[in-house]
Design goal:
The protein is an alpha/beta fold and 151 residues long. The chain has helices spanning 37-55, 68-77, 91-95, 137-149; strands spanning 7-9, 15-17, 25-30, 58-64, 83-86, 99-104, 107-112, 116-119, 125-129. A five-stranded mixed beta sheet has the order 5-4-3-8-9. Strands 1-2 form a two-stranded antiparallel ribbon. The protein has a two-stranded antiparallel sheet with strand order 6-7. Strand 3, helix 1 (37-55) and strand 4 form a beta-alpha-beta unit. It is globular and about 45 Å long.
Length: 151
Amino acid sequence: MKAPDFSLPDQNGTIHSLSQYKGKWVVLYFYPKDNTPGCTKEACSFRDGRDYLENKGAVVLGISKDSVASHKKFADAHKLTFTLLSDTSTDTIKAYGSWKKKKFMGREYEGINRDTYLINPEGDIAKKYEGVNPLTHVGQVSKDLAELSHA
């Protein structure tokens, strides 16, 4: 399945589109909110695993509906060394199917599911991870990338 293209600003206001990464593996992860415990753990795990992923030919892109300014503060506070994209309209989040009904303390609402997409150099979704564990997820993506990139 083709990964939906997008054009979104990063934490510095620079526009990125999926098509500009053609020829590379892309680890595209969706997360609910900057500077929350689970999202910070996940972002720091991607920061710490970035060298391995890049050595396998992959680029890491994180997406939430937080603003560019919020992403900048988040990236600076945790020394994040990869791109965070702002999707305030939630159009890209919805295009990937990561905007879902959620429940918290008995209350139902719609929000971003913690999902990741491993996109191959041709722009196809090679693997989808839904509702991931922020502590162990990067290891699973790394393992799958190693297997898929040698296939």
